[in-house]
Amino acid sequence: MKSARTIVFSTHLNVGVEQIPLEKRLNARGWAISYRPPLQSDWPHSGGLNSQREVLLHARSEAIAIGGLNLIHAALVLLEPSLESAHYSFHPMPLNTSGNRRARHGHSSLSVFPACQIACRASRSKALTYALLKFHLSARLFSRHGMDLSPGHIRGGALSCFPFDHVHFAYAIVVAYSVVEELDLAVRVPKGGFSVKNGVWDLAVRQHLESRLQKAGVNFGETFSWLLRSTPTKVERKNPLPMGTKSTWAGGWVRDTEIALIDAINRTSRLRSSVAAHRFSDSTASLSQYDVANAQSVARRLLLETLGYWND
Questions:
Q1: Which among 245, 276, 270 is positioned nearest to 259, based on CA atoms?
Q2: pLDDT value at 34 more than 50
Q3: pLDDT digit string (tens) for 177-187?
Q4: Residue 133, SS3?
Q5: pLDDT at 101
C-alpha cells in the first residue's frame, strides 16, 4: 500500500534568513518544516522581504498540519507571553489554493524560528507536548502584556470584582501548575506529611524535588522574582511568602521579592490546591493578576529550562 502524499501548507509565519540552519529543514514527529521566500501578496504592507522566509509545514493531512501549527503557536506564546494577549491565531493553508492567495495577517519575529525548534522537539514527547499546550491554555484563560506587569506600571487593577475574572484567574493558575506536573517537577508530599513547616522544608521532600529539577536540567540555585504589589491580599495574608530578599527594583507599592525556585514551585502548588482548585471560597476573589503571572512564570521558566531555552 502506498503511503499518503505529503501536503505543503503555508503558515504565514516568517523567519529571518540568517536564522535558518544549513540543513534548511526541521523534522518533527509526523510533520516537518521548510522555508520559502514570502509572497508580496501575503504581506502587502511589508518591506525587506528578501531577508525573510516563510515557514512551510509538510504533513500528510490538514489535521496533522493543524496539530503542528498549534504546537508552534504554543511555543511562540511560551517565548512571547504577550503574544496571546494580542489574540493572534494561525491556520495552515495548502499552497496554491485560492484561499492562500488572499492577503492574510502574518507574524514575523525573532521568536518564530526557536518556536519552530521547540515545537519539533516537543512533538517527540507526550509530556512536553501536553506541557506546551497547557501553558498556551493558561495564557488563553488570562494573560497580560509584560508592560502591564512592570514595576513602573500605573498602580491598581490587581484584583477584580467580577466572578468571570475570578474563574479565569483561578483556572489559569490550575493549568499553569499542571504544566509543572507534566514535567514531573511538582512538589510530592507523602500522605500525612508536609513540604514546609514553620518555614523549614521536609528534607526528604526537598531533596526529591531538587534531584528531579537537576535531572531536568533546571538550575534551582537561581532565585525567582515573585511579584507582590500594593497592600497584602487575603491570599497573601493566609499564605505568607517564604523568606527572601527584596528585588533591586522594589520600593513603595512594589514589594517584589527574590525567593528560592523550590519555594516558588511550592507556593504555586499551594495557590492551586488551597485557593484556585476545588470549591471557591472568599479567598478566590482575592486572587490577583500577579498571582496568575507568578504561577505562569514558574511554569514558563521550568518548561523553557527543560527544553534548554531559558538563557537563550
A1: 245
A2: yes
A3: 999 999 999 99
A4: helix
A5: 46
Same domain, 86 and 32: yes
Residue 180 lies in a domain: yes
- Residue 130 domain-assigned? no
Length of the chain as a residue count:
312
3-state helix vs strand vs coil in the chain, percent to 5: 45, 15, 40
d(Cα 245, Cα 253) in Å, to the nearest integer?
Answer: 16
User: Does residue 131 form part of some domain?
Assistant: no
- DSSP class of 220: T
Compute the distance between CA of residue 139 and CA of residue 153 in angstroms, rounded to an integer.
Answer: 20
pLDDT band at 230 (very low <50, low <70, confident <90, very high): confident
User: pLDDT band for position 304 (50/70/90)?
Assistant: very high
**How buried is residue 54: exposed, middle or buried, by Cβ count under 10 Å (0-12/13-18/19+)?**
buried
- As a whole number of angstroms, the distance between CA 80 and CA 68 comes to 18
Same domain, 177 and 211: yes
Mapping DSSP onto H, E and C, the string for 21-75 reads: CCCCCEECCCCEEEEECCCCCCCCCCCCHHHEEEEEEEECCHHHHHHHHHHHHHH
Residue 246 has pLDDT above 60, yes or no: yes
Name the burial class of residue 16, with classes exposed (0-12), middle (13-18) and buried (19+) by CB atoms within 10 angstroms of its CB. middle
> Of 248, 252, 259, which Cα lies nearest the Cα of 294?
259
CA distance 280 to 264: 23
3-state secondary structure of 225: strand
In Å, the largest CA–CA distance within the chain is 71
The pTM of the full predicted model, rounded to 2 decimals, is 0.90
Domain that holds residue 21: 7-124
Q: How many domains does the chain have?
A: 2
Buried b (16+ CB within 10 A) or exposed e, 233-253: bbbbeeeeebebeebeebeee
The most confident of 38-47, 107-116, 255-264, 303-312, by mean pLDDT: 255-264
